[in-house]
């Protein structure tokens, strides 16, 4: 970033009254430190002359806003895990359309104002950020070389709202999934053919197959998440509601009665639904919900990775897997079969690290050995090669005549 780029990118933020500082990434540590002594700018905004001097610093990779009172009460919610952001956006669709949001190197960040002090808090899936810390802004460059980009609004369209009211002061993913992701990110990419990238089959979080932490949701939030955006979404959203019901039943360790299902979930959904079809009665929607409940295979909130692993360890491996004497290879064949079933006609992702963890191996290189073995034996085909240089996981397809593939 040269001096003119810095000044041009800083201009709209300065006009908003934000305290702006320059950033210079450290390629050795992967950190994003300020390129100047910035503590003074927690109390006051830099002058035009100071900004011009900042722009002349060498090696700049971006700029950041110092949050808090110095920037008119600016605060941010950083989502390090994209699934967490999408789950929030589904539960608060109107705010998701209005609140300025940008894509970061790993996830998303939302900005807003509030008249009272907001203090930084670690939420597991990211952070609530406030007084006296800074957040990088578009169009900064992340150490992974991804450029921060606005996806909703911009600095001129910020709203004033309290974080709790917006649902942004709490985590949106359950602790088990957070722990898994934190471990993977801390270990970093391995020098193997399958990068850390994405471990599960990706689904649209707003669809009936949404992933996410329903254990962290209340019934009210689940109902809100399941409300359709138009009348064509009613069937898919009822199925989402049914997946949420299954998750609550697993949490409670019992099946809900029809009366509970109807009064706690279905009727609130029906009464708040602004896109009901005139040709379909309440009784017909109720029957559709009951049918959806019977069709649910995976409770909402359990990752596809865990779902398919559970199926793999509780079912017999394919007969073709008997060519392997090692039961771990047989189990991996069964797992890949379940992953392909869940992905349908699309390829699936699976990292060496995750394979190693599930098979009890000491390093991710062991997982790579097992995956390559399945490739050589014709169980797996590489659809798209990944690796550390692409920042994507390799995409596999399971080759099994029983699946018609």
What does this structure look like?
- The chain is built from 13 helices and twelve strands.
- 38% of the residues lie in helices and 12% in strands.
- The strands form three sheets. It has a six-stranded antiparallel β-sheet.
- It folds into three domains: 3-157, Prim-pol fold (2-Layer Sandwich); 214-295, no CATH class; 304-403, Winged helix-like DNA-binding domain superfamily/Winged helix DNA-binding domain (Arc Repressor Mutant, subunit A, Orthogonal Bundle).
- The N and C termini lie far apart (48 Å).
- It is of the alpha+beta class.
Count of the domains: 3
What's the helical proportion of residues?
25-40%
How much is the average pLDDT?
82
The structural class is alpha+beta
Report, as a whole number of angstroms, the end-to-end distance. 48 Å
Shape: flat
CATH class of the largest domain: Alpha Beta
Question: What is the fold's blueprint, element by element?
Answer:
Elements: H1 3-15, E1 19-23, H2 48-55, E2 62-66, E3 74-79, H3 82-91, H4 93-98, E4 101-103, E5 108-113, E6 121-122, E7 126-129, E8 134-136, E9 149-152, H5 175-187, H6 219-225, H7 234-252, H8 258-272, H9 282-295, H10 304-314, H11 327-343, E10 348-349, H12 352-359, H13 364-376, E11 380-384, E12 395-398
Antiparallel strand pairs: 1-2, 2-8, 3-5, 3-7, 4-5, 4-9, 6-7, 10-12, 11-12
Helix pairs in contact: 1-2, 6-8, 7-9, 10-11, 12-13
Quickly describe the structure.
38% of the residues lie in helices and 12% in strands.
Annotation keywords:
flat, 13 helices, 3 domains, alpha+beta, Prim-pol fold, 405 residues, three-stranded antiparallel beta sheet
């Amino acid at each position: 970033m040269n001096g003119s780029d810095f000044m041009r990118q800083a201009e709209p933020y300065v006009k908003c009254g934000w305290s702006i500082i320059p950033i210079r990434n450290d390629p050795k540590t992967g950190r994003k430190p300020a390129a100047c002594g910035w503590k003074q700018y927690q109390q006051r905004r830099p002058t035009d002359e100071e900004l011009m001097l900042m722009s002349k610093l060498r090696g700049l990779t971006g700029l950041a806003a110092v949050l808090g009172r110095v920037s008119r009460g600016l605060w941010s919610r950083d989502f390090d895990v994209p699934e967490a952001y999408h789950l929030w956006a589904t539960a608060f669709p109107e705010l998701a359309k209005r609140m300025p949001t940008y894509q970061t190197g790993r996830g998303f960040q939302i900005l807003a104002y509030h008249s009272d002090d907001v203090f930084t808090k670690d939420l597991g899936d990211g952070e609530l950020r406030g007084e006296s810390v800074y957040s990088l802004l578009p169009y900064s460059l992340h150490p992974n070389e991804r450029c921060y980009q606005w996806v909703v609004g911009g600095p001129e369209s910020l709203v004033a709202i309290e974080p709790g009211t917006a649902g942004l002061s709490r985590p949106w993913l359950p602790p088990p999934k957070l722990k898994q992701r934190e471990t993977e990110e801390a270990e970093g990419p391995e020098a193997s053919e399958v990068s850390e990238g994405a471990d599960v089959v990706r689904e649209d979080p707003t669809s009936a197959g949404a992933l996410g932490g329903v254990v962290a949701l209340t019934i009210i939030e689940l109902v809100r998440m399941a409300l359709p955006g138009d009348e064509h979404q009613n069937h898919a959203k009822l199925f989402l509601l049914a997946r949420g019901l299954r998750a609550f039943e697993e949490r409670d360790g019992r099946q809900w009665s029809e009366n509970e299902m109807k009064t706690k979930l279905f009727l609130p959904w029906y009464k708040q639904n602004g896109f009901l079809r005139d040709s379909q009665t309440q009784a017909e929607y109720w029957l559709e919900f009951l049918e959806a409940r019977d069709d649910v295979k995976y409770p909402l909130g359990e990752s596809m990775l865990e779902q398919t692993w559970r199926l793999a360890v509780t079912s017999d491996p394919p007969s073709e897997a008997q060519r392997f004497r090692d039961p771990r290879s047989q189990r991996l064949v069964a797992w890949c079969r379940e992953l392909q079933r869940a992905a349908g006609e699309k390829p699936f992702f699976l990292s060496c690290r995750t394979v190693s963890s599930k098979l009890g191996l000491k390093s991710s290189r062991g997982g790579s050995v097992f995956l390559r073995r399945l490739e050589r034996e014709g169980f797996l085909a590489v659809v798209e090669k990944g690796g550390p240089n692409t920042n994507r996981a390799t995409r596999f397809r399971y080759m099994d005549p029983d699946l018609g593939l």
